[in-house]
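chain below, 341 aa
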Amino acid sequence: MSASESEKEAANQPKVQRDYDVVTIGETMLRLTPDAFLRLEQAESLQVHVGGSESNTAVGLARLGKRVAWISRLTDNHLGHRIARAIAAQGVDTQHVVWTDQDRVGLYFLETGSPPRSSHVIYDRANSAFSRFVPSELPTGIFEVGRSQWLHVTGISLWLSDSGRELIGHAVRLARAAGWQVSFDVNHRTLLCSASSAQVYSQSLFETADLVFLPRRDAVNLWGLDNRQSDELVMGQLLSMRAGRPTVMTLGERGAMASNSTQSFFQACKPVEPVGRLGGGDAFSAGFLSAWLDKPDLDRSLCWAIATARLKYSIPGDLPFINRAEVERLVGGDANVSLVR
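prediction:
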């Protein structure tokens, strides 16, 4: 059965009342950021935000009206509970979080730059609670037939530790056994893992996931594709590696492409002032998945992904404090409203 045929079959399946539309797994950290473009060495105070790729996507999906659960492992202290509360407050089910009195909550520091000075991230997440999350601790009861439709994971969990790779592999197998589909955001972080190791760790999921998100730079850096080639040729090679399964490639400021074995769509992205750049890719995947859950349509889902990411860029912090009406307005072409009253 071709990818397009499987998508049509999924669209024609009777609606099933599930506990969740999507389940996500991943680490969420506290982000510490100086005010107003200060360097860390200048800062006398730091803003505190909650951020993690999978939980960012979970929040985006929940705020777009989907039922989402987030699985993680957190330290049972004030910092861990602050993270869980912040995510739960946006409508994400956090009851499956595993709590431990061992280890620590991961942190990262963001020094926001202004051209020509680049922004800079410093991770302080070694030996975090999530990095020591082993498969035997995974709440397997959630992975039952009919409880969810999708499992969403990212490469970040694969880069963190051996146990993280084992955990995600175990979760994917359980999801498959339960009849769920799997989406995978490659999301390579050079500060966590070399490109060569990242390619090895992610190859299986990249090839077999029902839906993959990746930036063009990851296609070039991890899979050695020629950066001089056109977007269409790069996408064609990705589809060849993925047997034509739906694949979404972001192109930075130019927009994004979404393709399968029979269709390919490009969506341009209008310029936007990036007030909150971090979390933009996670909002993109939330927008795409939200539309895809309504109807597996590449073109429509890509429009929703671009609109959701653009809105996130206007919001400080990592979490996408967006709403469905705003995304619908952008998708409909109404992007010039400066004051709603």
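The first strand starts at residue 22 and ends at 25. Residues 20-319 form a domain with the UDP-N-acetylmuramoyl-L-alanine:D-glutamate ligase fold (CATH 3.40.1190.20).
thats it, cya
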